[in-house]
């Protein structure tokens, strides 16, 4: 049996719900795979075979005890601007499309998605499907391959997730159910009320009213929980403004307009005050500055130049502040970017910030997607302390070092003093060794005590513990007997239809 998890809106907790279900089933010895037909996110992950999928599906796969693969997210949209997205199909770049032209691909993409789902179901027996955004986007019903058209093709039971923290949960649930197409509404088997602050028992009367209004059972009221799992998309950045670590170490991550894979810094967020700083905001007072990845290096570089970020970086360099570029940020730190019309509509040469003597060229529609394991080989006080690290590369373009020391074996570049370096390696600071190397140096420079990141906190053990904690939290507040009925029944809704 399989199940679809839809939401009343974006950011209500669909991804976490699917991860929790996958882990709960895995802990019971039930084989299950996650699936999201179409994801729009700049936070992505590279699988063992070099396929690119949304990071949420990778997290869900790990929660299910599986290696992530392309079938788990057959269509990934990566916005390059307000009107254009790169379409990644079955893990590989398909093409860049204008949004108005994308819907011409709907039937083909839905067919590919359904085929991917069936492959997963044949191999794993059970699949937990995640929808996208809000389920009741009535203007999109004819082309919504992540919610309505997919639900119509699969005919699976649906669990609807709502976010009570935002307020208006009754309108969310009642309105969504009322607007669903008549053939889809009967598939809704239950509602989960998510992100409740306080004692869920206080919402008992609310549960009765919801069930009375909708005729659909409420399967659980889940309290808000701060369990360290990677964020799915940029909506999560707003949540980070309220995070307080109490650490005197301050790290600025420049908030690029098309920021990608900011999950790279979520381990650092637990040990330092990490601020996502808007371009144009002063970088004075920070102990370290990071330029993160971006889906469009050339256009984001132009935004940063207009905002005066280059001068802020040069002043920070004069103060001896470490400056680190990841992927697109690495490219921006160089002297020059040569674009043959791959990143921007207009071919040309663009001046970088010039803090690294490297040149990046975009000469063809080719994307590097690969998992990597490398040893930090660069000079200075930070890189040599990192040791061996692992991560993944997702990038267009190639960068020439022009004689600078490598930051890592075979990749990246560093200034001779090691205080400015760049790398294409996403996930670098998810390695406890890399996080410790950076934080220990920053703590010493500031003259404050340093508490090392442990393997329990930041390594594989910590991630596995987070999945188990998530599952336990979910199981404690949800009617698992009702949910398990969908996975222990031998007949699925497709065969009954």
UniProtKB/TrEMBL annotation:
Domain CobQ/CobB/MinD/ParA nucleotide binding: 4-225
Active site per database record: 327 (nucleophile), 426
Pathway in which this enzyme or protein is active: Cofactor biosynthesis; adenosylcobalamin biosynthesis
CDD domains: CobQ_N (cd05389), GATase1_CobQ (cd01750)
GO biological processes: cobalamin biosynthetic process
MF term (GO), any: ABC-type vitamin B12 transporter activity
Superkingdom to which the source organism belongs: Archaea
Keyword vocabulary terms for this entry: Cobalamin biosynthesis, Glutamine amidotransferase
Protein purpose: Catalyzes amidations at positions B, D, E, and G on adenosylcobyrinic A,C-diamide. NH(2) groups are provided by glutamine, and one molecule of ATP is hydrogenolyzed for each amidation.
Protein name as annotated: Probable cobyric acid synthase
UniProt organism field: Methanoculleus thermophilus
């Amino acid at each position: 049996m399989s199940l679809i998890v839809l939401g009343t809106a974006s950011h209500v907790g669909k991804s976490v719900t699917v991860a929790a279900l996958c882990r709960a089933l895995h802990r019971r010895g039930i084989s299950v795979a996650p699936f999201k037909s179409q994801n729009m996110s700049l936070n992505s992950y590279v699988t063992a075979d070099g396929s690119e999928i949304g990071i949420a599906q990778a997290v869900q796969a790990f929660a299910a005890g599986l290696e992530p693969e392309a079938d788990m997210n057959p269509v990934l949209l990566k916005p390059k601007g307000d009107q254009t997205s790169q379409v990644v199909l079955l893990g590989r770049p398909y093409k860049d499309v204008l949004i108005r032209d994308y819907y011409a691909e709907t039937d083909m993409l839905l067919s590919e998605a359904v085929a991917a789902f069936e492959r997963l179901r044949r191999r794993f027996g059970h699949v937990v499907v995640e929808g996208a955004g809000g389920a009741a986007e009535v203007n999109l019903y004819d082309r919504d391959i992540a919610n309505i058209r997919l639900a119509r093709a699969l005919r699976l039971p649906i669990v609807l997730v709502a976010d009570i923290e935002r307020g208006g949960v009754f309108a969310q649930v009642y309105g969504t159910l009322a607007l669903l197409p008549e053939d889809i509404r009967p598939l809704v088997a239950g509602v989960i009320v998510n992100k409740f602050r306080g004692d869920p028992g206080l919402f008992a009367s609310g549960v009765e009213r919801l069930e009375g209004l909708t005729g659909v059972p409420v399967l659980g009221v889940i309290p808000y929980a701060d369990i360290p799992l990677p964020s799915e998309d940029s909506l999560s950045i707003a949540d980070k403004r309220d995070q307080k670590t109490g650490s005197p170490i301050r790290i600025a991550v420049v908030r690029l307009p098309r920021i990608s894979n900011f999950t790279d810094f979520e381990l650092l967020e637990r040990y330092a005050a990490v601020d996502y700083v808007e371009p144009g905001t002063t970088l004075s007072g920070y102990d370290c500055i990071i330029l993160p990845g971006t889906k469009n290096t050339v256009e984001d570089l132009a935004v940063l130049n207009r905002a005066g970020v280059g001068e802020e970086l040069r002043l920070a360099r004069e103060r001896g502040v470490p400056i680190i570029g990841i992927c697109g940020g690495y490219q921006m730190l160089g002297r020059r970017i040569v674009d043959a019309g791959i990143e921007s509509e207009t071919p040309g040469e663009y001046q970088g910030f010039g803090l690294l003597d490297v040149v990046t060229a975009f000469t063809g529609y080719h994307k590097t997607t690969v998992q990597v394991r490398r040893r930090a080989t660069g000079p200075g006080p930070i890189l040599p302390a990192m040791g061996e690290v692992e991560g993944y590369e997702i990038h267009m373009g190639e960068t020439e070092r022009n004689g600078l020391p490598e930051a890592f074996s075979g990749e990246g570049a560093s200034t001779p003093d090691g205080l400015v370096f760049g790398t294409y390696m996403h996930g670098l600071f998810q390695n406890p060794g890399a996080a410790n190397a950076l934080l220990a140096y920053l703590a010493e420079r500031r003259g404050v005590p340093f508490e090392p990141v442990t393997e329990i906190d930041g390594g594989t053990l910590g991630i596995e513990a987070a999945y188990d904690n998530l599952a336990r939290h979910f199981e404690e507040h949800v009617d698992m007997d009702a949910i398990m009925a969908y996975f222990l029944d031998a007949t699925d809704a497709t065969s009954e239809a």
